[in-house]
Known about the structure:
Layout: E1 2-10, H1 15-32, E2 36-42, E3 51-58, H2 61-72, H3 75-84, E4 91-99
Antiparallel strand pairs: 1-3, 1-4, 2-3
Helix pairs in contact: 1-3
Domain NIPSNAP: 4-106
Pfam families: NIPSNAP
Protein name: NIPSNAP domain-containing protein
Amino acid sequence: MIIELRVYHCIPGRLPQLHQRFANVTLKLFEKHGIEPIGFWTNYVGPTNQTLTYMLRWASLAEQETRWANFLKDPEWIEQRSKSEENGPLVDHIENSFLAPTAYSPMQ
Length: 108
């Protein structure tokens, strides 16, 4: 198992639109493409309240590469992302990490 950690740093004031896009579009397309989210978080306390952090579970990096590529080229995703960004981008930049559990991790 591999966990993908993604942190979206939003353009100030655009986090509500990013939440809407995830709730109304992205999650349905994740399901369509077999992408398994573990959870989504915003910062309760921290350096900024303009981030969305989430984790995805993968069996392997090969699975991630295939499923993520299919998601990114999905015509519905391309259309909906474009529509959600008609007034400018929602995200300034994304941090992306792939995590492997330690031998003593409760989550394997």
